[in-house]
Amino acid sequence: MDWDEFSNRPVWEYELKLEPSELKLGHFVRKMNRPWQETDFPLQGVLVDSLEIKRWFQEHCSWVIVDLDRSPNKYRPARYRAPQPSGNGEAEDSHAIQILRRSPINQLTLTRAINEYQRLDRQAEELIKQIELSGPMDVPTAARTVDHVAEAMEENPAALVWLTRIKRQDRYTAQHCINVAILCMGLAVGLEWSRKEIREVGLAGLLHDLGKVKVDGEILRKPGRLTVTEFNEVKEHCRYGYEMLLEDELVSRNVAEAVLCHHEQPDGKGYPQGLTGAAIPPMARLVAVVDAYDAITSNRSYDPARSHHEALGILWKRRGAQFDTHTVESLIRFMGWVTPGTLVVLNTGQLAVVLESPSQRGLRPLVALLTRNGEDWELGLSVDLDSEESKQSTRPLGIEQVLPDGHQGIDIGKLSEQMAAARAGP
Asked: What angle do CA 44, 47, 49 make, to 5 degrees?
């Protein structure tokens, strides 16, 4: 993932991808969609300090990347701006996209979230079984289950997102569908979509890989690179799922099209239709980004799990080409630098799991230390990395590294059960 080695910040904090018409005098252009060698500008970039330079970009480029750290003018277009602080000094935490930063993880919220997760888990397994046996899909029950989760998302978003860190390779298909459904609904809430759209995108997330049950399992489990023929067969899962959903009159067109188009790309190199840009349905764009995020952070037969930070970095680099730019940037703001359930190494060498991370804390969240108990891990003391005691010590506690889900066999599912079973504190 791209980090600034001097400020220890992710580059998305100060890089903006703009249309040339959005450029302002005082912006520093670091990159554009044509080689610097074809211009008279220096290879390290150029300061837009005249109308002539601005006009050149408008006439010769379809996009530019501005480095705000090197720009005297810090102007951001509206889509990049965080809401302004309120009168009481609170920053953008009140904005919908920051819903995870305002949501606590405790015994009560986690217990409720586990109930909804297990309900969704049972439904995903039942759907897969029904399709494998060539029986009719019980889509109405699946839709009702998604409705329950959507309601829970408004009350317990952080606890539900925490549960998406449960990654067991032997149950990848069902868990992936569950995780995508939950994260799609969470992001849709953050984007302030309507309740109907939130439920539809949740159902699309749950059913997005439906068509894979018609793909040869040996191909899906193959550890090495697929042949062209094998990959072409895998790509058909989008059409298979779409056709199955079209047979059910209770499934909305939005859901069916999201399933069909979730592997389309803004640059036209996706499948199955090679759609570009705005031709890709909004729900499909959202499912595509969330699908990729959960897949990258999961252990698959051909690729080990990457960390939360690595996943965000990969999505960031591929925005505008493989993934919709606005959706990638929205997911990054929604999830934050460290998200509930993220495994981390502190600068003391201790392992911990993130509980809460308000946006103003950056990389100083509330964490629970992890301790070994035989082959298992247990939740230990909660530590506030942003406490005055921590910040004023000779060696302030901080995060050294963000780890992949499942690191050293740490099972978020078991940790969740421990927390839910623990007695509430005084």
From this structure: 160
